[in-house]
Amino acid sequence: MQTVFSSIQLRHAPVHEISDGQVKAAVETPSRAEAVLAQIRDRRFGSVVPPFEFGPRALRRVHSQSYISFLETFWERWTELGRDGEAFPFVWPIRSLRQEPLPDHVDGLLGRYSMDAGTPLGEFTFAAAKASADTALTAAQLVLEQGHPAAFGLCRPPGHHAGVDFYGGYCYLNNAAIAAQWLRDYGASRVAILDLDYHHGNGTQSIFYERSDVLFLSIHADPRQEYPFFLGHADETGEQAGTGFTRNWPLPYGTGWTGYEPALEEACRWLVVYRPDYLVVSLGLDCFEEDPIGGFRLTSEDFKRLGARLARLNVPTIFLMEGGYATATLGINCLNVLQSFEE
Ligand code: Q9C
Ligand code: ZN
C-alpha cells in the first residue's frame, strides 16, 4: 500500500494547547507523523509519495468560503496587531449571541470559527492543513483513478472534528469529508466513512448528517464522559434524506477489545448492507491503552485484529490518519492496522 505524505504538514508545530481547563504542552505534534514514517521505513511497508496540489474547489465542496478565507488570511491579521506565537479563541457566539454580522476583529473571528480553545492557530497552520487535505485527496485518487485496492493518507493535522465553518479538536480542514466528497464528485455513487478515532467525529457527522450518499459510522468514547461532549450519542442517526445514514457506537471509559469488537462487527454489518463503492477510514489510534488522552484499552495486537477485520469487507479503502498520541507506539499501532489489512 502506498502512503501519501508531505513535509509541509510538519510545519504546523503547536507548542501549547488548552485542555482540561489548563494550558498544557501540545500533543498533536510533528513527531506523530515522524513516528509513523519511521515505522513505514523500518517495516518496508511501501513507498511514501508526496501529494498532488489540488485547487480550491475540493475544499469548497465541504467548507464555506468565508471559513477558508479566515484560515488563509489569519496570520496576516494576527501579526498586523503585533501578535506572534499561536492564537487561541476566548469568546464564542453561543446561545443568545448573534452569528451575524461577523466581527471585524480577529479575536471575534477566532471565536466564530472555532469550537474549542484546544486548537492553536499559527503561522503555518493553514499551509499544513491544506497539505494534509491534499494528502487525503491524493490517497483517494490512488484508489479511484489508479485502481489501488487501498491507500494511506498520513494526514496531519487531523480533520474529523472540523465542520463546514469551524475548527477544533486539533483539526482545521476535514480531510475525510473532503476525500469522501471528492470520491462522490469523480465517480462514486456511495461512500462510507468509518470513524475509529477515540473521539467522536462531530465535524464529519455534521457535514453529511442530511445525506444518504455518504454513510457515517463512528465508534468512540461516550460523549457524556469525553470530548467533544456535545455530539456522538446513539440516538443521532441522520435527518431528512440522511435519516438512517449516520450510526454511532458510544462506548464507556475503559473499553477494551471485548467491548469494542461487537461494535466493530455491527458497523461492519452496516457497511455490508450499504455496499459503498469506497470506504474512507478515519484512522485514529487513540483507542490504544497507553494513549495519554484516550481512555480505551486496545492493545497493539488488537490493532492487527482491526486491520484484518476491515480487509474482510473487501471494499477499496482509503485510510486517513486522525488522532493517536502515544508517540512512541503510534507508528507500531498504525502499521499494525495497515499491514494486517494487506496480509
Ligand atoms: N482530556 C483528535 O483526536 N482535548 N482530537 C481533550 C483531554 C481535545 C482530540 C482533552 C481532544 C481532541 C483528532
Ligand atoms: Zn481522537
TrEMBL record:
Keywords from the UniProt entry: Hydrolase, Metal-binding, Zinc
Domain of life: Bacteria
Cofactor(s) demanded: Zn(2+)
Family: Belongs to the histone deacetylase family.
Entry keyword Metal-binding: yes
CDD domains linked to this entry: HDAC_classII_APAH
Positions of the Histone deacetylase domain: 27-333
Annotated Pfam families: Hist_deacetyl
Keyword Transmembrane helix: no
InterPro entries named in the record: HDACs (IPR000286), His_deacetylse_dom (IPR023801), His_deacetylse_dom_sf (IPR037138), Ureohydrolase_dom_sf (IPR023696)
Name by which UniProt lists this protein: Histone deacetylase family protein
